[in-house]
Amino acid sequence: MDNPLKELEDELVALHPVRPSQRLERRIAAELAPRRRVHWLWMALPAAAAFAIMFAWQMQRQHLSPAEWVTNENSIVEATQPASAFKPVATQNLLYAARDDGLVTLEDGRVVHRTSHSYVDTVVWRDPQSNASVTWTVPREEVRLRPVSFQ
Amino acid sequence: MTLYRQTSANPRMEATLNDDSWKDWFQHHGPKLLLCARQWTRSLADAEDVVQEAFVRFWRHQRHLPGEPRALLIASIRRAAIDLARKDDRRAAREEFSAEETSRLFESDPAGDERVQLIQSAMARLPEAQREVLVLKIWGELTFDEIARELDIPLNTAASRYRYALAALRQELTVTENHG
């Protein structure tokens, strides 16, 4: 690169981009703040109450006698749990790095051309009824080996 | 033949990117990430939105991944910006970088303020493709290889766009200075 361009490049490197606003930092801080852990009892009590209500409602609906409760226990449990609530709604494969390792020799003596690709795979499931969502993010490295022949 | 394997966490990065250090890390890299985001968004508010989305995702899920974190973050910011543009059908407007001319891109002291303004105006007049590479190289601190992969262009194209951008910028600055 000629000198004037190098000088300009150095001048640009010395410039400092403006700082993000305090508002942005506050928003990020709020999102990254540790979630308060709820004691299990506070989760268990409402869950038990909800289960009891559902159980009673189910009994009333089916007009079952106490003797029949035991035999129909499985169907009651099934009725209180919505089937296939979460459905996959989005997937993403983000390639963030790739590397060419060149020619390598495998243990069996074959020569191959090896390339490595690093991805982040993300899958989102959503429950259309409650609008609750689950996001699953996992790193993945893909190594491709292509046989090489020398002719 | 394709093989898959799960990558393990990188102990070096865990040491530098621990839970308490996000503010330090963001204060150091945030301005550069925001400038990169502004190349792909219509407004400063949109740029901050995509930086927030990408950074929170990175800090929660991706900071332990091996590799250069800034390259991953910039890729993530670009995806978020493209998604935002698609969502709001603002792609055409996104390309009108000149609309952002009035918004400052760089810090400046009173002594060098005029020069910084000249550089910013000259950058605004660069073709978008050149300006994008220039910003990713200078302030994103990506290599030409990383830029080529991110923008899906040949490596030589990335390098030549960078040189054209610098040459055009120098010419703009020279002409402006000569004509007062």
Please describe the topology of this protein.
The complex is a heterodimer of chains A (151) and B (180).
Chain A: H1 3-14, H2 22-32, H3 40-62, H4 66-71, H5 73-80, E1 87-105, E2 111-126, E3 133-147
Antiparallel strand pairs in A: 1-2, 2-3
Helix pairs in contact in A: 3-5
Chain B: E1 2-5, H1 11-16, H2 22-38, H3 44-62, H4 69-88, H5 91-94, H6 113-124, H7 128-138, H8 144-151, H9 155-178
Helix pairs in contact in B: 2-3, 2-4, 3-4, 6-9, 7-9, 8-9
Structure description:
The complex is a heterodimer of chains A (151) and B (180). By secondary structure, chain A is an alpha+beta fold. Helices cover 40% and strands 33% of the residues of chain A. In chain A, strands 1-2-3 form a three-stranded antiparallel β-sheet, with no helix packed on it. Chain A is flat. Chain B is mainly alpha-helical and 180 residues long. Chain B has nine helices and one strand; from the N terminus they run E-H-H-H-H-H-H-H-H-H. Chain B has helices at 11-16, 22-38, 44-62, 69-88, 91-94, 113-124, 128-138, 144-151, 155-178; one strand spanning 2-5. Chains A and B meet through helix 1, helix 2, strand 1, strand 2 and strand 3 of A and strand 1, helix 2, helix 3, helix 4 and helix 9 of B. Strand 3 of chain A pairs antiparallel with strand 1 (2-5) of chain B.
Quick structural gist:
The complex is a heterodimer of chains A (151) and B (180). Chain A is an alpha+beta fold and 151 residues long.
Could you name the key traits of this structure?
heterodimer, A: about 150 residues, 5 helices, B: about 180 residues, mainly alpha, Arc Repressor Mutant, subunit A, about 0% strand
